[in-house]
Amino acid sequence: MEPWICSIRPENFTEEVILEKKPLLIICLAQDDGFTRQLTVLQDIARRYEKEIKVGLLAHDSLEICKRKLQISGTPTFLLMREGREIDRILGVSDKETLTHLIDRHLSVYPSGN
After folding, report:
1. Would you say residue 2 lies in a domain?
2. pLDDT tens, 48-77?
3. Structural domain includes residue 44
4. Residues 17 and 81 sit within 8 Å (Cβ to Cβ)
5. What pTM, to 2 d.p., does this model score?
6. For residue 11, with 0-12 CB atoms within 10 Å meaning exposed, 13-18 middle and 19 or more buried, which class applies?
7. Which residue range is the domain that position 28 belongs to?
8. 92: region left, alpha or beta (phi > 0 left; psi from -120 to 50 alpha)
9. Which of 10, 42, 82, 106 has the largest count of CB atoms under 10 Å?
10. What is the pLDDT of residues 80-105, one digit of tens each?
């Protein structure tokens, strides 16, 4: 895993999701044919916004448990969280432009430090 993408598991869920102060983009992604393409998009986003947001990937071996905690019914799903609460969601395959728009829209509403 890239150093700027955290792996989210049940044992670190509270620390990585609930207690995180920075906005957090989480991807719930099955390891299927689209995994590599969506992971590449996520890596690009993580690098671009490394100072403003945290990016997390639900760990494959914990996917079902985390999906229940976050009320996710399908993959891929992108969640934008702030202080442990969901502020937006994208269902289905997404591209870099769509995710950039999602993040920029919320960063303008909730600037860092506010």
Report:
1. no
2. 998 999 999 988 888 888 788 888 888 889
3. yes
4. yes
5. 0.86
6. exposed
7. 7-109
8. left
9. 42
10. 999 889 999 999 999 999 999 999 99
**CA–CA dist 25, 87 (Å, integer):** 10
CA distance 50 to 55: 8
Q: Is residue 50 part of a domain?
A: yes
Query: Among residues 110, 108, 106, 114, which one has the least CA distance to residue 90?
Result: 106
Reading the block at residue 96, the tokens are 């870099």
CA distance 61 to 59: 6
Whether the CB-CB separation of 99 and 12 falls below 8 Å is answered with no
Residues pairing with 103 in the sheet: none
Instruction: Report the distance separating Cα 98 and Cα 94, nearest Å.
Output: 6
Q: How many percent of the chain have pLDDT more than 90?
A: 48
Q: Domain for residue 28, yes or no? A: yes
d(CA 15, CA 79): 17
CATH of the domain at 37: 3.40.30.10
Residue with tokens 């969506």: 38
